[in-house]
Amino acid sequence: MTGFVELLPLIVAVWLLLAGLYGTVTTHDLVHLVLSVAVLHSGAWMLLLGIGHHPGVTAPTVDEEVAGRELADPVVQALTVTDVVVGAAVTALMLALTVRIRRRFGTVDPDELRVLRG
Description:
Blueprint: H1 2-26, H2 30-52, H3 74-105
């Protein structure tokens, strides 16, 4: 049972990555595309959390209580927090671009945006 619990974040991450990739490839709506990319991005930071998790380690704080115990790697945690912030910024930018495209061209269907084709 312990092995399954350790693999659960990785299984969820792969599922989110596949669901986001499927939504990104099959969509015909820019808003759905933005949400699919957000799900894909959630899978990425879930993968980081799954890789950085090790049972039996404590938080990377320096206390008298954690002296002599193995500490978790703070780099993975810092990368995950940075990844979440960057993902929120990218999602906001993509939604803003979607709103601008809707106002200018009157549609959010990428197939109807003939002007954007070279």
